[in-house]
Amino acid sequence: xxxxxxxxxxxxxxxxxxxxxxxxxxxxxxxxxxxxxxxxxxxxxxxxxxxxxxxxxxxxxxxxxxxxxxxxxxxxxxxxxxxxxxxxxxxxxxxxxxxxxxxxxxxxxxxxx
Length: 113
Known about the structure:
By secondary structure, the chain is mainly β. It has strands at about 5, 10, 20-25, 35-40, 45-50, 55-60, 65-70, 75-80, 90-95, 105-110.
């Protein structure tokens, strides 16, 4: 059974940082592209960042230069380092195995003073 478990969310002040983790079990994440998505209240889910099996990355314009996606294949884990957070980054963040139906349960990120 495939499971994606996110962690690392929380409350942070504007300008602060958080690192999200997505631990995969039941599949080898290194064989799949992985993505981080987010969904703010009342809005559609959107792609934040993605990483291919070869390590190529792409980012939403709104987070380019502030967020970094990475993967540790030995730990079967994907990360999202989020720096210089803004209130508009507040959302539930989800991990997703690209091209599949597998999603994590989500982790809440709230950016507020």
